[in-house]
Amino acid sequence: MITIDGMIEESCRKFAKKTAVRHKAAGRWQNTSYRQLWLTTSQVAAGLQAWGIQAGDRIALLGGNSPCWIASYLGILHAGGIVVPVDKELKNAEMRHVLADCQARLVLSEPPYLDIISEIAEDLPDLKMVVLFDGPSAPSAEMPAQEKLRALSNEWRRLAARFAIPMEEMQSLDVMEQELEQMLRSEPAPEAVNRRHDTLNGQTLPKGCGLRRFDEFLVLEPPRGATHQPSDTAVLLYTSGTTGRSKGAMLSHRNIVSNIQNAIPLLGADHTMHTLSFLPINHVFEQVAGTLAPLSLGGTVSIAESLKKISQNLIEEQPTYFMGVPALYRLLLGRIMKNVSENPVARTLFALPLTRPLITAKVRKKLGGNITFISGGAALDPEIARGMETLGFTLYQGYGITETSPIISFECPGWKNPGSVGRPIPGVEVRIDTPNEEGVGEILVRGENVMQGYYRRPEATAEAIKDGWYHTGDLGRLDDEGLLYICGRLKNLIVTPNGKNVYPEEVENELLKSPLIAEVMVYGHRIDATSEEVHAQIFPDQDALDAYAEAESMPPLDQAAVEALLREEVLRAGRGLADYKRVKRFTLRDDEFPKTTTRKIKRFVVEADIAATP
Questions:
Q1: In 3D, which of 329, 320, 328 has the Cα closest to residue 386?
Q2: Which 8-state DSSP code applies to residue 613?
Q3: What confidence tens digit (pLDDT) does each residue in 6-19 have?
Q4: Closest Cα to residue 372, out of 353, 398, 350?
Q5: Rounded to whole angstroms, how far apart are CA atoms 381 and 327?
Q6: Distance between CA 464 and CA 248 in Å, rounded?
Q7: Tens digits of per-residue pLDDT, 229-260?
């Protein structure tokens, strides 16, 4: 078993000339080769060592998906540190909690987040340095001399490839290129000087906490040899916090590497693997499956620009895999079917099985051709899976959580059934604890992928891991073929007055089939000491309501009309459910639900609001 950085270093040596990462800057796709990726990784590691990093120091990463983020992640590991990927959407109190709890000594951040760091830094006694990336992706507008240097670099790389010059003999040229580029960047254009001066000196950090630019922090000399082991902690990932204050899950190099090595063969992926990175890279799903996995194979990671440009980026980059969450696939399918339904010819052709392929072929071509979609992060509604398959897409659902590095099971050819999340991957055991008459119980997991524990939380660790089995808190069942089905969260389970169990997620999926409902959360409203009623909060789709009113030649709908219309939708959804699962009462929301980075509703926030409402 090797370390994460050791695994990627092997790829960088084997595929030195190949593109590792692509991102868009100034409207053009830019390439980062494996050689360039490892060169920056080494410079980050050397910079950390020169600064004084100690083995096991927690170094936080704060920013969006970018080549700098990836190289910094690998550089921290290569220097023997522990990476703490931080959600850039966190508010001050949440950010303070994460950085204080992990005792971060240094933060690598994009400039926009310096304000929040400055505001909370007084409460972070362990923080000694903040390093600012040059921009959201990479150094931005280049000066003419830098452009000439880049052209010269590209030309000698082309000649090196043509005459098969060994990588070892090119290292000195690589170093000289980096030295020249750093010299040029030390004398930027006047407007760049002013901008960077304001960014660096316009903030106040506590005494003893330094502030430096990324390019100044890098060290060109090779870093000292790595001494960390596969059993060492590699990443400290703070759970998304759907049920309360987040805890730091300690994942070792072995946890993550074993998960990648056990999962990849099931997909049949190789060096041609090409992903479009869209989900936040601080989340374990994108970090491991969408980034580290393809890089471990010599594949390519293209970084999407935004949600609005997903379709455009899919067309431009033609990835072979795309990692998404159920909310994204629901949105994607909804948009596709809306476009089809609004075109009379397309609607007619799609309705006929004989001519449907004419439409589905156009849809697939528009979204990038032969692509495999993978869903994770939450349970996928089987109707969404069937809808995507009707369009001719390959969509596999996986199951995993932060504490299991993350993959527990996923569908693949031969291991697929609507509603299931496939079989557990090799090296991972799954057991259903105290199953009921339907075979449903808590999902327990054991294997090399299970976390080391929660950072500085021995009691929480002991509660979560018992006799080597991690208690997921998820309810599920295994069928006769070993396929796993997720039923819901143990804490969300609703027990009705007649003792029946209701899984909120099942009811939510039925309600979300209504085009008038944008978001919904089903919960148990306690009516006595032991039982609950099924209630729901609904956030209506205002665009759909407006379209309905226009189609029916009605004036804009008032509150009473919206409630009446949605009552019919709730009753219609209830007809597809057993009586005891039907929503007894619902309320409407004026705004979206608070969510995690993977678009899961923060139930504890909503439930606290409900409890506080008279």
A1: 329
A2: -
A3: 999 999 999 999 99
A4: 398
A5: 10
A6: 13
A7: 999 999 999 986 555 678 999 999 999 999 99
